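RECORD CONTENTS
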Amino acid sequence: MNKLSVDERAEIVSALVEGNSIRAVSRMFGASRNTIDKLLCDLGRACSDYQDKAFRNLKSRRIQCDEIWSFVYAKEKNCTAERKAKGCGDVWTWVALDPDTKLVPCWFIGHRDAGCAYHFVHDLKERLARRVQLTTDGHRAYLNAVEDAFGAEIDYAMLQKIYGAPQDTPETRYSPAICMGARKAIISGNPNHNHVSTSYVERQNLTMRMSMRRFTRLTNGFSKKLENHEHAVAIHYMFCNFGRIPPSLRVTPAMEAGISDHVWSLEEIIDLL
């Protein structure tokens, strides 16, 4: 990696954040996969550390949370106990989003259980400077986690979606069940019903699937190592928060949130190394 110029590194990172796999990037730019892997790991650590320090005392008023599924090496049902001990199998990315600024202040990669919910929600709490309105889906693990982290100092509601019975036929096997409706459940505080929604964070999850080859369904581009999966997610959010302007804004999420005063170029992101 040390032999690559800044421009070459920027081209490789640009290809990665636009949804290309490591093998495809290797063919496009003539760089070895080991070189791209090392750049991914080093830059991923730098992006994760920078965002962890930068996203503090955020003045967000609303937060939406959701989880997105993927897997490492193989799906959970096809993994041996030895592989599961190394982090292989089903992996969930917990995501928090400010719907006003489109900033992603924190995320957590792990299982979809109470322990990961506890870690994720407490991390979110430490980044906020004021009382917020929080909306999550109906996952029960959020209940104890939010109460333990925020106590009564939050306006919290759940959006519980009601799905029809799934039809396991060749035509519908890879399609989600039909959503029959949604119920807004007030958990604590006094949340505004008009803002009880997870639409923005679910749209951000779609961006993840479109922008990272590792999240694309029904391909062989899935992550083979949990560590590389975590680094790829860190780079993706660094680019989305600091380097990409959402269609609904004229600035980046970091600029809208008052964290940055300009649009970061890929060269600036690489300078974090």
Observations:
- The CA atoms of residues 244 and 254 lie 10 Å apart.
